[in-house]
Amino acid sequence: MASSWSAELPFGSFRLKTSSSRTGVRRSNTSRSYLRAAVTIVYVSLAGSAFAQTLNLPLRATNAPDGSVFAKKISTLGFAEREQAILNEVLAGDVPTFLRKLCPVTVTNVVGDKTNFATFYAAPEYLAIGSDQDYLLSPMSPNTAQRIADQLGCVLPTRKMVDAIYAAAEVKLAPSPIPPSAAMTTVPVFVQHDEMVHTQRGTFVKEHPLGALVAGHKKDVVISRQLSGVTNKVAIYGWHQTNGVAIQPLYLGHSAAWVDYSHGIRLVQSEMVVNGETKTVAAVLADPTLCGLISDEGVITNARYQFLPGSTSLRPVVSGVAAETGGTHELELNSTNHQLRTFSAQIRRDAGFNGRDARSTNQTVNPPWPEKFAASPHFGEMIREIELPNDVRILVNAPSRESFAPDKPLLLIFYALPNGNTIEQTIGKTLKPGDDWHFDIQHIAAQTRWLRNEITNRTIVVAYLEAGMKSWPAWRKVHDDQSVARILDDVRGFFAGRKLEVVLTGHSGGGSLTFGYLNAVEEIPDYVVRIAFLDSNYAYETQLHAEKLKRWLADSEGHHLCVLAYHDSVALLNGKTFVSEQGGTWGRSHVMLENLGAHFKFTSRTNQGLETFSALGGRIQFLLKENPEKKILHTVQVERNGFILAMVSGTAEEGRGYEYFGERAYTKWIQGE
């Protein structure tokens, strides 16, 4: 039976007449697409009127504080009190009028032979407190933002929605970063950045008055599939440059209590229109055929931030990072990091390797050097061992007290252990019959002593870091990256008040700890003077690490990067390869080279199968060993003076008294039992 329909659809000053019949009338794909789009637009228009496209807020009280007044009010509050004040003010209606009317953002996707059309409604600006004439763009925690969104019938956007908002924005503001500092999580810096944004926005206000969709000037707090089951993280994304490329990739390295000036909260109405029908954003994200409209991560279920039922605020923070719970004592950190931290924990101390076990005594410890250090039986050294409740064991090895001259900088080397090795095995010793071979493959202690003997203008201290599972990659699957940063800051606190330089290094899976630290910080601190990967850069990701390393290397002539690797993808174990071309350190190193090569000019040379790539006068070095015999050279690189090389590359000491892949230069420094 034939059926037909016709309709006249209004489009401004003209009308589009359409008709359809099942009696064999053929239309081109193009005309069908136009027809479908036209009908959908009308459906969107009609369906959109079924729900309000404004924020469901009370009228702003005549005596409500303006943005500048509110900023002064919260500038002296603690974190929890500040979050509560923001929540109260927003829900009381102290929000500019222009922010209340939402802007339509249209998106499409194709599934099979069907094109889906949808419109969601986003706030024209990031959430602000105050009046149209005086408002403060208000960074806040994701938990507070989620509570506000819940109350107003809104959601937080996905990464794909943020991209769509930027594409649709009438006003695209360029990002205005402020150099990282300890103050970046404080209200005065919020205000400083707010004033910069207001100045930018003012240049567009005649053509695009307040209420026009604006984007580009903040990182969005977003929802992500990666948040599933997580209760203590924030996901951020955005800060689009004028070329449309976001400075901030999707990032979940911060705790939920990290709130800095760059963060913005964009509210999106929880209802949207899809193919002419009203649906919730949550339903669209959970639908495998529709999620692609607003998600580039596939299906996202329970798309919201989770927090403990009945809780009203986040845990307090010091300069932006939340204290961990679970300990009965609070350990204050003597830290000069731009991201100061507290670390609440019970730390168990073992007096060393002299047979006296103090692990059963829980006590809060973070006294400065030389307190809690005990004499080692080897080479007059001092040691301090710490065990943390999060299953990390640390041994700090320092030279004698006499070596700590007040005018000498202290070089603190964080050495993350390779998978499957203990601290004792990493330190090394002279082998006796029946000893485990692992004691004879790294000799980091002996190589450190060689360095102390040769480099006399630094006091060299090594902190050995062992994960309880004897695997940093496995440990990081259980613990967040902020935990890594807090651990390193804690150890730095032992030497507070001294001129301190830090090296991040490790072998094999130990490189994972270094990447965990890089993920946890917005910028690599200036006091980190060297990063060295001893066949350990498996976890390198262009999106997360390339720009951060580039900026750090460009910031100071005192910053060095050294990467050791070999052609592991051709190496054979029991006659079979065991790493992929891209997944091993050979592949990862070439990706790093390509990324850094876009910014720095490299030269290269080859000597006996060792390719050396160098830039910035030797401050960046990649030493990549060919492997025609398909051997496993994983630990050989470290044993054959690799640690020495990685600590002196690009300096006057490079190549003096040792040879990489040569005989051990440190034999006389190997300890006995």
Low-confidence stretches: 1-50, 308-365
Strand coverage percent? 25-35%
Alpha plus pi helix count: 16
Termini separation (Å)?
Answer: 95 Å
Tally of discrete structural domains: 2
What is the assigned CATH homologous superfamily of the largest domain? Alpha/Beta hydrolase fold, catalytic domain
Number of strands: 35
Morphology = elongated
Looking at the structure, the CATH topology of the largest domain is Rossmann fold
Helix content: 10-25%
Q: What is the second-level CATH architecture of the largest domain?
A: 3-Layer(aba) Sandwich
Describe this structure in words.
- By secondary structure, the protein is of the alpha+beta class.
- It has 16 helices and 35 strands.
- The strands form 10 sheets. Strands 21, 22, 23, 24, 25, 26, 27, 28, 29, 30, 33, 34 and 35 form a 13-stranded mixed β-sheet that branches. It has a 4-stranded antiparallel β-sheet with strand order 3-4-15-16.
- Residues 1-50 and 308-365 have low confidence and may be disordered.
Notable characteristics:
elongated; 16 helices; 13-stranded mixed sheet; 4-stranded antiparallel sheet; disordered N terminus; 25% helix; 673 residues; Rossmann fold
Task: Offer a concise description of the structure.
The chain has 673 residues and is of the alpha+beta class. The strands form ten sheets. Strands 21, 22, 23, 24, 25, 26, 27, 28, 29, 30, 33, 34 and 35 form a 13-stranded mixed beta sheet that branches. The chain has a four-stranded antiparallel beta sheet with strand order 3-4-15-16.
